[in-house]
Task: structure prediction
Amino acid sequence: MIIVAIDENDFKQASLIIDCLDVDKCMIKIGSVAFNALGQDIIFYAAEKGFDIFLDLKLHDIPNTVKKAISGLTSLPIKMLTVHA
Result:
């Protein structure tokens, strides 16, 4: 499995990259650049295409804050999430 980073802040550019990938060979990594610029839309776009999503926000804060941040992400179709300890 190849994990492809989507580090774009333009939805059209990000979606063009996703559209060129093979769902059977790739997983999509959404980092802070794309997530902060495009929000949940890019996650749902990739998930609707059938891709597994790795949300790489590198969450790092006091434990209670990280817990609340993660609980706010539970409705998203993600397979993996980074947490820095």
Remarks:
- Helices lie at 11-19, 32-38, 40-48, 63-71.
- The longest helix spans residues 11-19.
